[in-house]
Design goal:
This protein is mainly alpha-helical and 141 residues long. It is built from six helices and two strands; from the N terminus they run H-H-H-H-E-E-H-H. It is globular and about 55 Å long. It comes from Nonomuraea rhodomycinica.
Length: 141
């Protein structure tokens, strides 16, 4: 049992290292693909995560950043004509972020680029599904 206790921290460290390495690869991939479209990495992440109308707080949560950072990114996307703020249908104090037609088109182009040579591409679809399920269980939200 002592041996099991000694190997668990090592396994945890190795898993954390692998996850960190994958996260860095994904970040570099997003950065390079976004740059080909004249976007920053943060703008690329925002477009990837804007799966439909959502509040700035929801976008910030999906981007894993502070709401002030999401506001800055949303402001730039709005200035570029890719995003609009609309009244929230259920909360008159809130606004919803909605992609413009140009923003939707750009998002589709970005998603296409992100799927090319993705860091997850070496995994078969079933393996990606398994990885997603395991990570979802490990991530406490």
């Amino acid at each position: 049992m002592t041996e099991e206790r000694e190997t668990q921290p090592q396994a945890d460290r190795e898993i954390c290292g692998l996850i960190n390495g994958l996260a860095k690869q994904i970040e570099a991939h997003v950065r390079s693909r976004a740059a080909t479209l004249g976007l920053t990495a943060s703008q690329g992440v925002a477009l990837r995560e804007l799966t439909g109308p959502m509040t700035l707080r929801e976008l910030a949560e999906r981007m894993s950043c502070e709401p002030s950072n999401a506001t800055f990114v949303a402001d730039r996307l709005e200035e570029q004509g890719y995003l609009e703020r609309h009244p929230h249908p259920g909360n008159r104090r809130a606004k919803q972020l909605v992609l413009t037609p140009a923003g939707s088109e750009l998002r589709e182009r970005l998603l296409g680029l992100l799927s090319e040579n993705s860091p997850l591409a070496p995994l078969a679809p079933e393996e990606q599904d398994t990885l997603q399920r395991l990570l979802a269980r490990a991530v406490v939200r």
